[in-house]
Structure formats: structure tokens, C-alpha cells
Amino acid sequence: MSDISIAEAKNRLPALLREVESGEALRITRRGRIVAVVLGLKEYESLVAAAKGRPSLKEAISRYRESACFGWELSPEEVDEWRDPSEGRRVL
């Protein structure tokens, strides 16, 4: 994967598209920071296909929380015992 500035990409677009079609991926930069990635159609379609049927991160976390069994129950008093009762450091 190679990096190319927006200005250079604008000037060389036909040649860059040929590179992308041959399997090369390009990262487009603005002032040295990556702002976009250009992929060929095959790579894009494979990414889309891989993502289909997968739950979103939010859904995956919700499913995990519903099914997780940690095997212990804690009372509020037990949690309070873990806490440091000191006032902590003095902030000026």
C-alpha cells in the first residue's frame, strides 16, 4: 500500500486507477495525514462480504452481557470493602 498526496492523486488519477485495478491499494494523504483509502472493487467486495452477517460491536457486547455467567454475586457491602476509605492526596 502506498501513500500519495491529494494533489498528486488529482494529477495522476487515470494511472492510479489502473494500479488499484491491478490490486494495489492507495492511501491518500492531506498534509501528511491519511484521509482516505482507495481499494479495487474485488478487495472492497470481499470486505463487504466478510462483514455481512456479523453483529455490530454494540450487538456483540449486548449478547455477551446477556449470556455471561461469572459465577459469583457481590453485595454492595463487599464492594465497599474494596474501596480505599482515605481522603487521598491533597490537590493544590
Commentary on this structure:
- The chain has about 90 residues and is of the alpha+beta class.
- It is about 50% helix and about 15% strand.
- It is built from five helices and three strands, in the order βααββααα.
- It has helices at about 5-10, 15-20, 40-50, 55-65, 75-80, and strands spanning about 1-5, 25-30, 35-40.
Fold topology:
Layout: E1 2-5, H1 6-11, H2 13-21, E2 26-30, E3 33-38, H3 41-51, H4 57-67, H5 76-82
Parallel strand pairs: 1-2
Antiparallel strand pairs: 2-3
Short description:
The chain has helices at residues 6-11, 13-21, 41-51, 57-67, 76-82; strands spanning 2-5, 26-30, 33-38.
Which features would summarize this protein structure in a list?
YefM-like fold, 92 residues, 5 helices, alpha+beta
